[in-house]
Amino acid sequence: MVTKTKRKIQICVDVLMTCVLLLLMSYSIAGELLHEILGITLFALFIVHHVLSASFTKALFKGKRSADKTAKIMVDLLLTVVVLAQLLSAVPLSKYLFTFLGIASLSSVSRTVHLLGGYWGFALMSLHIGFHLDFMLAKPMRDKKKRAGIITVMALLFAAGLVMFIREGIYQYMLLLSQFVYFDAAGGLPLFLVKYILILCMFAVIGYAVMALCKNKKRR
Predict the structure, then answer these.
(1) Cβ(125)–Cβ(21) under 8 Å?
(2) Closest CA to 128 of 56, 203, 58
(3) At CA 93, angle to CA 88 and CA 94, rounded to 5?
(4) What is the DSSP string of the chain?
(5) Spatial separation of the C-alpha atoms in residues 171 and 89, rounded to whole Å
(6) Predicted TM-score (pTM) above 0.85
(7) DSSP-derived secondary structure for 90-145
(8) Per-residue confidence of the chain (220 residues) as pLDDT tens digits?
(9) What's the burial of 161, exposed, middle or buried (CB within 10 Å: 0-12/13-18/19+)?
C-alpha cells in the first residue's frame, strides 16, 4: 500500500514538474512575477522528486556500470548542476522576490548563465522524461501491432518537435548564438505551450532512443 501511494505521489510530482517547466519557458508571456514564483516551485518539486526517488538513485551507483546507467547518471548530474545554477543566477535577476538582497549588479553574468541554464535544463529534463518512457512502454513495445503504432507516433512527434525547435530558434539560445530571446505573443500562452510540448516530446523521443540503444547493446 505504501509503495503504491508513494508511486502515485511520484507521478503527481513529475506531472507538476513538467507543467511548471513548460510555464517557466513562457517567461515574458506568463509574466515576471509568476516566473519567479514558478522557479521556486520547480526547485522545491525538484528536491521532493529526488527524495522520493532516493532508492532509484542509489541503485544507479550500485552493481555493474552499464551504458544505460551511465547515461542516466550523466544526465541526472548535469541536471542537478543546471538547476542549482538556475537558482543562483535567478537571485540577481529578480525584480520581485529577492530584490531586498540588493545584488542586481551581478545581473549581467547571471542573465547569460540563466539563459543557458533555462534551455539546457529544459532539454535535460525532457531527456530524463524520455529515459522513463523506456520503462513505461516496455510492455506495449513487446506487442508487434502496438509497437508499429508507438514508433509511428514517436516519429511524428520527433519531426514536429524538430520543426518547432528550429523555428523557435532554441538552438541559438543553447549555443549562445543569440542572447536575446524572442517570444512570439501571437496565439498567446496556449499556442506557446503547444510548441514547447512538441519540443519536449522531441527530446523525450531522443531519450527513449538512447535507452533503447543502450539496452540493445547490453543484450548483445
Answers:
(1) yes
(2) 203
(3) 95
(4) -HHHHHHHHHHHHHHHHHHHHHHHTTHHHH-HHHHHHHHHHHHHHHHHHHHHTHHHHHHHTSS---HHHHHHHHHHHHHHHHHHHHHHHHHHH-SSSSGGG--GGGHHHHHHHHHHHHHHHHHHHHHHHHHHHHHHTHHHHTSHHHHHHHHHHHHHHHHHHHHHHHHTTHHHHHTTS-SS-----TTHHHHHHHHHHHHHHHHHHHHHHHHHHHHHHHH-
(5) 21
(6) yes
(7) HHHH-SSSSGGG--GGGHHHHHHHHHHHHHHHHHHHHHHHHHHHHHHTHHHHTSHH
(8) 457 788 889 889 999 999 999 999 998 888 889 999 999 999 999 999 989 888 877 777 777 778 888 899 999 999 999 999 999 999 989 988 888 877 766 678 899 999 999 999 999 999 999 998 888 888 888 888 899 999 999 999 999 999 999 999 999 999 999 988 888 777 789 999 999 999 999 999 999 999 989 877 666 5
(9) buried
Q: Which three cell numbers stand for residue 206?
A: 531522443
The grid coordinates listed for 178 are: 543569440
